[in-house]
Amino acid sequence: MAELEEDQITLTNYTVSKRPSIKIEDRFRLWVRSGGRCAICNKYLLDLTYEVNVGEMAHIVGWSKAKNSPRGEAKTPLDERNDVNNLVLLCAEHHKIVDTKALLEEFTIERLIMQKVKHEQRIFHLTSLNADAESVVLRMLGGIRGVNVEVSKKHVRDVVFKSEEKFAMYMDSFDRHGIEIDLHTLGEPEEAWDAYWQMGQTIIDRSLRPLTDGIQKGTIRHLSVFALSRIPLLTYLGYKLGDKVPASFYQKQRGTSETWAWSTDEPEVQFEINYLKKHESNKLSLVLSISGSIPLADLPEASKSGSNIYEIRPIGVTPHRDIFTNRKSLENFTVVYHRFLSELEKDHKASRNIDFFPAIPVTAAIACGRGLMRDVHPAITIYDRTANGYRSSLKINNNEIN
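Request: output the structure for the sequence above.
Response:
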């Protein structure tokens, strides 16, 4: 091959002109519009110690049509590709991420343009805003009747972005996979009933320490939770998370797509509270017939005898396991559950415990724990269904313990 001229470079199967310089006015416009911060993670791009520029001007549509030019196959004219509207200011890490070949289907032209516009509009209106485009990922998987379920980083990133327009953030850990609660080693509760639930709570407590530290330091402002486990452990997780930071909850959806994303096409479901049995006592039981129906006959005799029994169930819909496909259904359930807790403060103020019988989706279980207020609401004793009927598993919001 003949020696190339100085103004040419070689890419795979292509010889293309050397990349032209970005005009000074376009550099200036880009830095001002972006506030000197990465459009994805909001990192400040001027090293204050040495006053060195550490930002990188990334092309949304690659500057050439060569095969190795990220998104370069687009129809954008070559003479417009160095324009400020085709440039996004990024830190070195995110520049590498968005141009990585394996991630090009994820970091599309449309997605990068939307993030650029959103970031630059935020800077324009209030440059002192903290980063609000990140969501820390929390995964809790395992401990559910031998079922081994995973959710990939890529799927998490895709679901979080499409649902919240946020970028999934993985806290510093050996695998950069966020907060991990691994319950696969628990085995089955029938093998050692009390030890199983105690160990599950211990694993959750230990795994949530980075979250507690991050909330205290102000580095965690939003959570995206992907969880699949036994209902009592999910309820305990919700209780430990509380409502200190905003959070979005996802659950694995059955069907052809096998996704964790919520559907906007499925109808939302409403819920109601029914008073099944009334007694002049402070004993309380709550039946949650959401993903399945729980007949009163299935409750242990000790929970039925002399107890005020309430039920929350869907309106006009037979309880079934795929009842939560639209996120609005979860929100509607949460509103009704909170109303139930509020009414207890008026009608059963002296009650100290609720026997809790759940047939509910995983996100509803988390919502039930998260809705409990310490020193306000009664404790809940959660019953888990076994082959021999319902059996008490663990107790939450017990002031003697907490």
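Residues 1-16, 173-177 have pLDDT under 50 and may be disordered.
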